[in-house]
Write the structure tokens for this entry.
Amino acid sequence: MPTFSRLVRFLAKDGKIYYGDAILPKGVNDIAKITQARIIKGDIFGKHDVTDQVAEVKTLLAPLDSKDVGSVRCLGLNYAKHAKEANMTLPSYPILFHKPPTSLTGPSSPIPVPLPAQEAPGLDYECELVAIISKPTLNVSPADALSHVLGYSVGNDVSHREWQLKRGGGQWALGKCFDGWAPWGPGIVSGEVLGDPTGLRISTRVNGELRQQGETGDLIFGVAETVSKLSRGTTLLPGDLIFTGTPEGVAMGMSPPKWLKDGDVVEVSLEGVGTCTNKVKFVKEKAKL
């Protein structure tokens, strides 16, 4: 069982990068607002200690170092109201796709939009609860599944609908796998602290405008069922991330669509965890020599 309450990875003011246990200011529940953390020593997936050594936080980073991340699994159409706005039937089995580890980025990093994704409109946001696997998991029952979860975070499954739905040959990956298109954080809250992941409020704001507002109780496949189903015949490993789907309110479902633009600020929030705030940045063409 993890001894941390709210795991963060951060650049400290001393110039070093640490894992730590977030120290929340009084009355604050958003990890993104911390200024201090207790340094953690040891294996975050095994034996580790939260020390009494307090470090000043300069910048919060993605909660796991790239070497500690396994795969990035994602579910599509996993909120009933989102499936309805997309005019699609509720799935009988989880709709699974993967994002590469290079899509992961931190809770305040820019969202880079490369030239191919600028060729047509369609840039969209998706706030998602992220579950992190803590130990090798194979054929686990729904009743035992949450004991295999290290904790919970919030992420943004940034998507380009033109590339996802029209240019992908029936596969979604081309519209979801660009570098930096999975900001997540601002930390990982243990199940002991967060409690039941059902019924949590989750939302997206763009330039301060509320776009998505849902509850994880609308998940078609809840966290326990998702972990159980994904582990059937396939071993989930420590550090595997599961983006569990997005609620209604995506730009694609609006008339007309409110696609993201260069310079937009996107905030995805999960109750009990906090907020990732990321600015959209269109990549400029490099000068030709």
